[in-house]
Design goal:
Number of helices: 10
Largest sheet: 7 strands, parallel
Oligomer: single chain
Helix content: 40-55%
Radius of gyration: 19 Å
């Protein structure tokens, strides 16, 4: 998403599509997918022109792809070969200009759920995002560990069992991120080590849900989980660290929230700020003045 730059990714709703016959529905979906591929290329061009080295791809880049009633296989859509080629063009572009592309599926992707239906739907969604990631050369599909369900060890065991069943196209991109309510880095680092998958260190979440590890310790331990360039998350609290709820993200990044431990590292930092590209522009300037 962008704050001011005029690139938009189009969505739709199942309720809206339900009013059309099947052939017309697929034509509309094909048009949306094609437009989103074109928008993605424009987004990547913006990143190239503004020295932004990473772009997170919208989870609904193929709208309603896994919806229980309106879901579809890309091959069922008109001009599907052209749509795929347009996404592959984006992948070639990002590779040429060294722009990392990543996915961060919605919060309903829960591999630790005790409900098999939730897990199965989550896996279907991960399979779809892995399919698009193949076209785009994206190397990260990042998820949270999910809920605790009254028994954190059992929930993590369920997570590990589910991860072991995933297809290789998902598994080699899958990463786990610490969150601000249930799972701190000290919970997830052993899981990542056992599963041999990287941990995306969200320092804002760690500050909201601290454990016995320091930022420096988690930074170093997280980096060791990666077999490629590490990816971390950065945010600032909307109402300050002394507010009743520091979890909410600010429009911009307070330069004091950028860990000094990261300044000399070769890492990707995903900026989670409501100001989007404006926040990144400001952060780059602020970092340049250090």
């Amino acid at each position: 998403m962008f704050k001011e730059h005029p690139v938009k990714f189009r969505q739709t709703t199942a309720k809206y599509l339900a009013q059309f016959p099947d052939e017309q529905r697929k034509k509309r979906l094909g048009g949306l997918c094609a437009q989103n591929a074109q928008s993605l290329l424009k987004a990547l061009e913006f990143c190239r022109d503004n020295n932004i080295g990473s772009f997170r791809i919208n989870s609904q880049i193929l709208p309603l792809k896994t919806h229980p009633e309106m879901g579809y296989d890309i091959s069922e859509l008109p001009d599907s070969d052209q749509i795929i080629n347009d996404f592959k063009t984006c992948g070639n572009f990002s590779k040429k200009y060294d722009i990392r592309t990543t996915f961060h599926p919605d919060q309903f992707i829960i591999l630790s759920s005790p409900n098999p239906d939730v897990v199965n739907r989550s896996i279907l969604d991960l399979e779809y995002q892995a399919q698009v990631a193949e076209w785009l050369n994206a190397d990260v599909i990042n998820i949270h560990a999910g809920g605790v369900y009254g028994d954190k060890p059992s929930a993590l065991l369920q997570l590990m069992k589910t991860v072991d069943t995933l297809k290789d196209s998902i598994r080699r991109r899958l990463t786990l991120e610490n969150d601000d309510r249930s799972y701190s880095p000290i919970d997830l680092l052993p899981v990542c080590s056992k599963l041999n998958i990287p941990m995306v260190y969200d320092v804002h979440h760690h500050r909201c849900l601290p454990d016995t590890l320091s930022i420096e310790e988690v930074t170093q331990k997280s980096m060791k989980t990666w077999n490629r360039e590490p990816l971390f998350h950065l945010s600032s609290p909307k109402d300050g660290w002394n507010s009743t709820n520091p979890r909410k993200h600010h429009d911009y990044i307070d330069i004091n929230d950028f860990p000094k431990e990261w300044l000399s590292l070769d890492i990707t930092v995903e900026v989670e700020a409501k100001g989007k590209e404006l926040a990144i522009e400001k952060l780059i300037k602020d970092l340049g003045s250090l």
